Structures are given as C-alpha cells and as structure tokens.
Amino acid sequence: MAPSIEPDEPGAEQPFISHLIELRDRLIRMLIGVGIALLVTFPFANDIYTYVAAPLIAQLPAGSTMIATQVISPFLTPFKLALVAAVFLAMPYLLYQLWAFIAPGLYRHEKRLAVPLLASSVVLFYLGMVFAYFLVFPLIFGFMAATTPEGVSMMTDISAYLDFVLALFFAFGIAFEVPIATILLVVTGLTTPDALAEKRPYVIVGAFVIGMLLTPPDVFSQTLLAVPMWLLFELGVFASRILVRERAAREAAEAALVPPVPPGGGGGRAGTAAPPAAPAGGSGAGLEVGRELEPGDLDDPARWGPLTDEEMEAELDLEDAQAARTAPPRVPIDPVEDKINRANQLRELDNPLAARQILYQVLEEGDETQRLVARNILNQIDET
C-alpha cells in the first residue's frame, strides 16, 4: 500500500474552505445514512418501544399500565425511539464517514492506534447499554415499584419513561468508556500507567459516587455500576502498559536501524557521499581516496590522494553541466494538466482531502475535457 502524505509534507495542509466542503459532504452522507436506517426502524417503532418498556411493565402492579398524557405522545414517542435506534443502526457508517474526514490529518502511527480505539469505544458503549437494560433496569424499576406509597397507582407516562431510559443508556454507555479514556491519557503523555495505578483508591471511591448518582439509593444497584467501572479502569491500565512497552520496543528497533554518522560526514554538498578511506598501512593510511597521483598498482595507497575543496566543487559542477547537456529538452506542461497529475498522485498516496482541493481548482480553471477528468477522479474518490 502506498504511504500516505504526512501532515507536515507539502500539499497536506489545505485551505479552510476545502475542509468545510469536505465536512459538508460527509455530513450530508451521514444524514442520508440515518434517513435510510430510519426507513428500516420506523415500521417497527411500536414494537421497539414495547421491548424497551418491558423492564418497567414487568414490575408494574397488576392492573397498572403505562399512560400517554399528551395528545401526540402515542405517535411522537415511538418515532423518537425509532430515530435513536436508526442512529445506533447506522453507527458503523457514521463512524466511517467521521474517520474518512479526520484520517488525512493523522500521522501513520496515529492511524494505527485510532482505528482500534474507535471500534472498541463503540463496542464498549453498546455493552454499557446492554448492561443497563438487562441488569440495572430490573433493579431500578423493582425498587421503585416496591417503594410506591400506599394508595398511589404507578402509571408512568410513556414520554417521561423514554427520556429516563435514554438518559440511563447514555450514562452507562459513557461509563463503560473508562478503558478508552485511560489509554488516551497515557498515549497523549498526560500521565503514565504507574501514576494511574497509584490513584486507584480515588478511582474506586469515584466509581461508587457515580454509581450512587446514577442508580437508586440501594447498595446493590450502586455496586452493579461501581464494580464494572473499577474493573474497566484496571483493564485500561493493563492495556496502556502493553502499549507503552510496544512503543518503547518499536522506538528501540527504529534507533537500531539508523546508521551512525561518520566523523566529519556533515560537510560538503548535500547528497554527496564521502570517498572511501584508503587501506590501512603504508604511507597513504588514513587518506581519503580522491584523484590519482601516479599510475601504478591499484592497491598501492601512495597512488591516491584527496581532492581539495575547490577541486571537488569543480568536479561536481562538471558533472552537473554534463547532465544538463545530455538531458532531453523540457516540454512545457499545461498547469491544469499538472494539477490533475498532482491530484492523482495524492489520491494514490491515500490523501483524498488534498486531491479534492486540487480537483476543485481544476473544475474552475480547466477546459471541458479537463473538468470531465476531474469529475471522474472525484467520483472514484467517493467510491473508495
């Protein structure tokens, strides 16, 4: 796979308008994806709401039901839930569009880390929702039904119930992102795994405080949220230790591959290699091979002597002049065609954002054929 252009390479930083155009295109596609998912979920809106309300209905006293206190609630509440379900259903596509927008601005090592973090954060968020639905909701609604005062009928409004469960879904989903937050703190250099481990007592206390705020005032439901949060924190610390060790090993391996710089190797013209040293021994030991002093044995160190700086510059200038004479004549290139070629190169280097910006210029400056080529390349970028 061709390497991508890094953010500090030429052509990587683009004007602000091109970023806005790219963001607009991505947002439009995300809205279209949610709309298509809504067409799938809306026919089952009432069934989805019945499934979500099942934990509360199971705890209601005999003869009690949920009620709708507003005229439009029987339609609007299931529709709202269907819309939320559509967003969850389209989440992989939405994350892909988000990734396609930010990926050109990331370094290669950041891309390697961002993809698994993004995928695992979504999985953990869904796990938090599942945990809330199957374990926390029965405890919460059972506690509420058991503490209802005598003479009060527990009949919850369907709109208020939906707002309540969506808030809990969001709270537990965010709570399950603790490992991702822990890894990001370590990767960005704000802290270390050892420093996080030292703060374990504060984390445990904080987890129980959050559990107290998000669950009913009983020790069982509070513990059901606090203990998973603590275990997820430990998981994040463990994963961050592995990442730190891998990064240290990778940096050590890269340092071992860098060749040592020879003494005095920084002088002279850029890109010019220093001549090899003469064989050890004899009168020419330690002299750099340059011009031939006198004919003789090739292995005789006395046959060779170093060039002076002036002679080296003259030799290089002569080589440059010979290369210029033998080079074929340059054909003037159409600037629009040059932009098309540049856009193709950026597309092959996995930098679609920079390629788009150049192609937009071609659409403004090129002739009919060049604009057609630019549109074809833009369509190919959209399909990848």
Structure overview:
By secondary structure, the chain is mainly α. The protein has helices spanning 16-41, 45-57, 73-89, 91-102, 108-146, 158-175, 178-187, 193-198, 200-214, 219-257, 309-326, 335-348, 352-365, 368-383, and strands spanning 291-292, 304-305. A two-stranded antiparallel ribbon has the order 1-2. The longest helix is centred in the N-terminal third of the chain and has 39 residues, at 108-146. Mean pLDDT is 78; it is low at 1-13 and 261-290.
Mean pLDDT: 78
Task: Identify the strand order in the major beta sheet.
Answer: 1-2
Number of strands: 2
Describe the largest sheet.
2 strands, antiparallel
What is Rg?
A: 34 Å
Beginning-to-end CA distance, first to last residue: 14 Å
Give a quick summary of the entry.
This protein is an all-alpha fold and 384 residues long. It has 14 helices and 2 strands; from the N terminus they run H-H-H-H-H-H-H-H-H-H-E-E-H-H-H-H.
Topology:
Layout: H1 16-41, H2 45-57, H3 73-89, H4 91-102, H5 108-146, H6 158-175, H7 178-187, H8 193-198, H9 200-214, H10 219-257, E1 291-292, E2 304-305, H11 309-326, H12 335-348, H13 352-365, H14 368-383
Antiparallel strand pairs: 1-2
Task: Summarize this structure as a short list of keywords or feature phrases.
384 residues; mainly alpha; two-stranded antiparallel sheet; 1% strand
